């Protein structure tokens, strides 16, 4: 079976990125949305320069994470930090995703927020919106993350994994790679992959200590994903 793709998100520290140069990481994510991990375009450009020195056989692609941005803001970021992928984490519709893809010539990942168990109405899952077929042929990947009412994601909490097949069926039917995020860490990622075999996994807070990226946790997470 092909190795699961690894995305390490929320990078801010140049030294941490330098320490990752030999790891088999596929995507590096930078958060431009409101978050404690938020970076500026200037910050991201400095971090992007480090990717030129990547020593593993495959250099990771850079991903910018945005929540309901406008085209002007994206343009300003892309002028200073030429990203490979724009990940849209808000309520962006397929028309906007297509405009982003056409204007910037990048891959577009669309995030879907999934509620965790135990919602206020007692149901196990509440879908904020249904996947629309309008996205077919527009987005390059679908990413599932735990619903967060403030930031849209990055909560560090898992969602109801048993709902993954619902999205996975859609993903396979339309040839859209599926990433899973939300509360992943070195201790639970093996279970996720063994049960659901997603195309990729996305981690941020699960490889942090005291709110900062921890290179030992990043190594452990990557090793556990790639050894499966």
Automatic annotation (TrEMBL):
Enzyme Commission number(s) of this protein: 5.3.1.24
Catalytic activities: N-(5-phospho-beta-D-ribosyl)anthranilate = 1-(2-carboxyphenylamino)-1-deoxy-D-ribulose 5-phosphate
Record keywords, A-Z: Amino-acid biosynthesis, Aromatic amino acid biosynthesis, Isomerase, Tryptophan biosynthesis
GO biological process: L-tryptophan biosynthetic process
Protein name: N-(5'-phosphoribosyl)anthranilate isomerase
Gene3D superfamilies in the record: Aldolase class I
SUPFAM superfamilies, alphabetized: Ribulose-phoshate binding barrel
Functional pathway: Amino-acid biosynthesis; L-tryptophan biosynthesis; L-tryptophan from chorismate: step 3/5
Domain N-(5'phosphoribosyl) anthranilate isomerase (PRAI), first and last residues per copy: 6-223
Top-level taxon: Bacteria
GO MF, any single term: phosphoribosylanthranilate isomerase activity
Stated family: Belongs to the TrpF family.
